Amino acid sequence: METLVEGAVAEALRDGHHEAGRLYVAACAERMAPLFVGLRAGVPGREADLDLYAESVRDLWYADRPVAHAAERVRLLERFPELQPNEEGVTDVADTYAFFAALCLRYALLAHGSGNADDAVSCGHAALTAMGMLDRNVVGASLLADEQRLQSLSVSGDISGLWDACVTAGRERLRAVVGRLPRR
Predict the structure, then answer these.
(1) Which residues contact residue 26 at a Cβ distance below 8 angstroms, ignoring those fewer than 6 apart?
(2) What's the total number of domains in the chain?
(3) CA nearest 58: which of 67, 45, 49?
(4) Mean pLDDT in consecutive groups of 10 residues from the start of the chain, 184 residues
(5) Which domain holds residue 131?
């Protein structure tokens, strides 16, 4: 499968140490978190899913140690409606971006636990795919370029300000998606 992750980023993930890969996936998941949490907040019956998502993203930032119960978290995440096969496909705006956020977290948890660079690349690919779609649907958006820049920053070795940049980017993404939702 061809990936959208830049070659230099993928190479850094494959050649780098496990902690660098963990920071990379934590940063990707942080940027995507508002798309899940913000789009699923207030949905009846999803409170436990929201808690699992938020706790997992928080715990991913502890790059020096494994995420507690990571395999169980992945198993629970894979039960989320967003990751269930659907004959009709996903066409709703909110469902589309919540799907990519859940997929990103799934790969982040897998990569964090195993150190598998392919899982880390898949995590980044999910984020880039979502931002590319959003760019095509929001006039003047440059979210894909921002995601590429932040992914490069995540593996650069200089991570000062990374968390703040990820939080800011996540908020911008949520605003862009909310702007595409039908008005009721």
Answers:
(1) 57, 60, 61, 63, 108, 112
(2) 1
(3) 67
(4) 81 88 96 98 96 98 92 96 87 93 98 93 97 93 95 89 96 95 78
(5) 7-178
